[in-house]
Write a structure and sequence with these properties.
Order of helices and strands: HEE
Strand content: 15-25%
Number of strands: 2
Helix content: 10-25%
Radius of gyration: 19 Å
Largest sheet: 2 strands, antiparallel
Oligomer: single chain
């Protein structure tokens, strides 16, 4: 587990091990979510990265006919 600390300007450095594992880039936006006492940093991905991820998916049995 990697650790970091908050600077005097309230900035946090994401450890290199985590940046490499998640393929984070400089300037990439992060969504900040707070749940209770926990802070989550979720990297935003461009829409282009989702192109083709549903390729080959069977769309016939997604919903019941009565739901349409």
């Amino acid at each position: 587990m990697a650790t970091t600390k908050i600077s005097s300007k309230y900035q946090v450095v994401i450890p290199k091990v985590v940046r490499e594992k998640l393929h984070l880039k400089s300037g990439q936006k992060m969504t900040v979510v707070v749940k209770g006492e926990v802070v989550y940093l979720i990297p935003e991905k461009p829409l282009e990265s989702f192109k083709g991820f549903l390729k080959g998916m069977n769309t016939k049995d997604i919903r019941e006919n009565k739901e349409r």
